[in-house]
Prior knowledge:
The protein is mainly alpha-helical. The chain has a domain at 1-56. The protein contains ten helices and two strands, in the order H-H-H-H-E-E-H-H-H-H-H-H. Helix 2 packs antiparallel against helix 9 and helix 9 (154-169) runs antiparallel to helix 10. The longest helix has 30 residues, at 121-150. The radius of gyration is 19 Å and the shape is flat.
Amino acid sequence: MLYFLSVRISVIAMGAAFLFFIFNHLKGWILLIAIALIPISITLAYNTPHFKKRFEPSHTENAVLEDVDYRKLHWEAVFMSIKHKLLLGRGTEGDRDDLHSIYNDKKLTAAYEENYNAHNQLLEIGLDFGILGMVIFLLYVWFLIKNAITHNNKLLLLIIIIFALYSITESIFVRHSGIILFSLLTSLLILKKEDEIV
């Protein structure tokens, strides 16, 4: 499934989950073989034609940019838009005309034509709920991390790490599946004691 999605951050998240699994369930030479398979698998996945095509440089009206440079411009546009409603944001139903206008000004053709979201969860929250919403979200994540560490809940910590990784390049809470999955997993795992976690 990750191959068809071709989202690089999902491969990194899968690697983190795989490391969690192997360090908690494997020992000896089997552990060493499993660790060696991680970079081999990632290298093979990235060198398939599907992945290579998916990650060709992005086009603007002026130039062809590598993904990192394109994302910098993209996030810069989002920051500029957040400044317009800094404290409380636009609300979940607020328009994003100014963001799309900034995309257009920066010649980010695909972002403008396809009405891109922020492609970063924290920035997405900043657009909708401003600085106040960002602070509340970060406090909630801190509460989850503290709870996971206090109760030695490794699975909850792994789930938080995976969602944090996805949040770097994806706005995962703009879809019902992201909201429901995060809410369900964290709610269930926060109630579990260490000896009950499978």
